[in-house]
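Q: What structure does this chain adopt?
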Amino acid sequence: MKNVTPKKRLGQHFLKDKGVALKIVNSIAASNANAIVEVGPGTGILTGLLLERYGSKFYAAEIDAESVEYLRENYPELGKNLFFTDFISLDLSEIASYNMVVVGNFPYNISSQIFFKIFDNRHLVNEVVCMVQREVAQRICEPPGSKTYGILSVLLQAYFNINYLFTVSEGVFFPPPKVKSAVIRLTRNSVKTLGCDERLFIQVVKTGFNQRRKTLRNSLKALLSKSSQEHPLLDKRPEQLSVADFVELTNFIGETGETI
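A:
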């Protein structure tokens, strides 16, 4: 195999431990997925395992030209299933219409953007197994009341069951990061609709957390009519609200407030 020297790009730290790679792949619960999509395979430590297990159902999106050249040379069976693009720009609907698994070692600097992409494609993605900075993993898994509970926590927990699987030490990467990483699994729950205007729900969540030190009565003022500011949830801060609370508040604003 041709050697490839990993480049630290977009906050990427390349996994080099085959044991950890196998543990990640074995964490995929789906046995009948229509497609498995790897985010940023880089030097291919997960790629070979995924190809062996899923064959023609496996796809990969890689933006680094040197890595793409390496992958094409060493995994020619990927063929057209290797996309020379970043995952965020990828049209997932062209790969599968439902029951998709997303897997990968997400670049630190764009992990939030990747999760928003997954959220936007929640009708396609049934499972996610990924490695991210431990702080990000903990934030996504946190329940209401935590200081790190935020926009992604609410949006992802609304549609996915989320499990913190295991912590990964700095020494299994090249170059080694200054912080620990973690592997989490997101599994699509049974929620088809939230029982509210979902566009307004997203706006309420984002607007509330954008001024998280304020009570929701103040941060959501632009969405409230003068006569609709009596709901008890408005006296709380956003991190105190569960998904169900945000749904209730969204319905209240939708019925009485200044909707979008």
